[in-house]
From TrEMBL:
Gene3D superfamilies: 3.30.420.40. This is Glucokinase. Pfam families: ROK. Coiled coil: none annotated. Belongs to the ROK (NagC/XylR) family. It comes from the Bacteria. The lineage of its organism: Bacteria, Bacillati, Bacillota, Clostridia, Eubacteriales.
Amino acid sequence: MLSSGLLPVDPNPVDGVEPLNKCLAAVDLGGTKIYTALADSRGKLLAETRVPTNPGEGMEAVIRRIAGTVEEVYNSGGAGRDICCLGMGVPGPVDPETGVLYQAPNLGWRDVHLKKILQKRFAVPVLVDNDANLAALGEHTFGAGAGERNMVYVTVSTGIGGGLILDGKIYHGASGGAGEVGHMVVEPMGPLCGCGKRGCLEALASGTAMAARAREMAGAGAGRAILAEAGGRIEDIDAGAVAAAAGRGDEEALEILWGAGRALGMGLANVVNLLNPGLVVLGGGAMNAGKPLWETMEEELRSRAMPGALERVKVVPAALGKRSGLLGAVALAMGGRPPGDFPQ
């Protein structure tokens, strides 16, 4: 329920039953968008909405906006149902037990007792986890990882993040920070990463890294095809411009994708050798850069992974796209109960 008491809630949310009058709320909180959905107790989406986060307005304004989206999806699809739980993904390290969000640079938040705040606001049980973990859980429950007990999810976008599903459950590690694939060092003397260290996978293979390399080329008078894809403005060069130029056969753009693919393959080989997963799921916008990235990544993975681990692992694209985190929040609210129909 909202603080205004507008939404009906279930006073006994966990009873092992799947009644038709129960529903779940799910929120994927990002630095730019709040993506919220209502689902039935078997995970089928009933309503969804997306609004700007506008973190510059302050935390309380964002919390009010989250509450407004939950009210909106309830009014759209929750008639005759009681909300029994809210699952939420957040863009930063979080303690899943206490629900404390340690740091979210995109929001400007630090040490926020998010679970406590939201439970007071909504008067329902609230479960909070990192957005990459929930993207992994979403793919594991509803997407490319369905049925796989041990899988690794890696998202390659502005940055590189990851989530681990081990023995069918999210693996958090000792302090909730497991799965930080992007900060695995693959080139010790490599470029500086946003974390302050050098040679992280994120600094070599993320969309941001590809764009930075292309802007560097353009600034030196090279990369003309990439620059043309960006409308002639160096500051507008992004990974999409690199991919577009590579699609036209531009050698410099291809070199950027090949370099990112080699770094990504090296990082995945380390993950495969360490964890021996049955499945690696790759998501994120930068993975749409095309065959040069994928093929180079696969070649590097094959050359570096141990044969026994390589024989058992499959590497596949994510199936849920931008919905992976939201559907992971649904799965979190479901508490691991078997899903129903695939959400439409």
